[in-house]
Amino acid sequence: MSKPLPTTVRTHFTALRMLLVMTVILGLAYPLLITGISQLVLDDKANGSIVELDGKEVGSSLLGQSYNLPKQNPDDEKEEARPDPKWFQPRPSAGGYDPKSSGASNLGPNSEDLLKTVEDRRAAVAAFDGVDPASVPVDAVTASGSGLDPQISVAYAQEQVARVAKARDLPEETVRKLVEKYTEGRSLGFLGQEGVNVVLLNTALSEQK
In this predicted model, what pLDDT tens digit does every residue of 136-195 receive, in sequence order? Predict the structure, then answer.
């Protein structure tokens, strides 16, 4: 009759079997199940909410991006970006809408640098959109916490309608209807404020003739 294994050895074998079973369940079966369900039920969101234009991927509706004019001197790293008047502009980004540099400026409300930056942005936005500086919305001069926010306020979108319509030689009413179409309601119906998805709006705008 064989001698029973020591208690410590049996405990180790039990732990090893449990490790293998849980690895199969939680490391393979569960991820595959959730992936399969997401592909069947939420295919678009599960694959990154990719936005396409003329069959080409141009971004994600979850990630904002910049809409600037090409650099006059591509080799000059110090050349400041110039917003393109033909596009609706997103809110400022501390990381330049670079997904690898997501984050805020970390400047507090009493920071003199932040206050100066806000005032400079206010003057620049007012001149760019041809409006009174006092009417420039807050999100036009302050960056989001992630630096990748795809939304702007309805007020900021409406402020840009006249400038975009003029730059594209389109009726203002046509551009205004696009803003209304891509205005998204509050999260869960009561969280936050209404916003306009700039990525979706500009993609639709590029399809206008």
Answer: 999 999 988 888 899 999 999 999 999 999 999 999 999 999 999 999 888 777 777 899
Which residues, at least 6 apart from 98, have a Cβ–Cβ distance to it below 8 Å? 147
Statement: the pTM of the whole predicted model exceeds 0.90: no
**Residues 164, 205: contact at Cβ < 8 Å?**
yes
- How far is Cα 162 from Cα 125, in angstroms, rounded to an integer? 13
User: Residue 72 falls within a domain, yes or no?
Assistant: yes
- Alpha carbon distance 126, 148 (integer Å): 23
Residues 190 and 95 reside in one and the same domain: yes
CB 202 within 8 Å of CB 92: no
* Element spanning 80, H or E: none
16 and 84 assigned to the same domain: no
Chain centre to alpha carbon of residue 100? 13
